[in-house]
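Case study 2.
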Amino acid sequence: MNYLNISKEHTLPVAKELNQLLADYHIYYQKLRNFHWNIVGKNFFELHGKFEEMYIDARVKIDEIAERILTLQYHPISRYSKYLKMASISEETPFQTDTDMVYILLNDHKILLSQMKNVIKKAEEAEDEGTIDMIGGYVKQLEKVSWMLNAWSKSTVEQLNDELILS
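Prediction:
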């Protein structure tokens, strides 16, 4: 039964992009666990907690992405070996400084946001409002977390763009 009123030829590209996002999120999730477990130093308490918050969020998104693929009537990829082959995000050694961990995650966010834009593009072509709505919310959340991590990585003397304030 086609309860979505979207043809299979239109949902297939969306499901493919969602499976790519699913693979990327699995590797990102495990990297967050890695960093959560292996953070050391003066920022331990702050980043240990933040990384936990982030991997809990990633775990929820993994489930939602897989369920959206199922809603589109396709099987989500579910083997870790396949995720490792497909993902644009790579595994990371646990031997990183706190600052390096944050920069690595910010780079991963660029990759995730780019893939989310790919999903939205295919979903727009398919007129798949459910996927557009879900991923649009993810973009908003990830951009906010990226802003926070970026602010954390700055020195206290660095400032944002002041053009609007000074004009």
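The helical segments are 8-38, 44-71, 80-86, 98-126, 129-153, 163-166.
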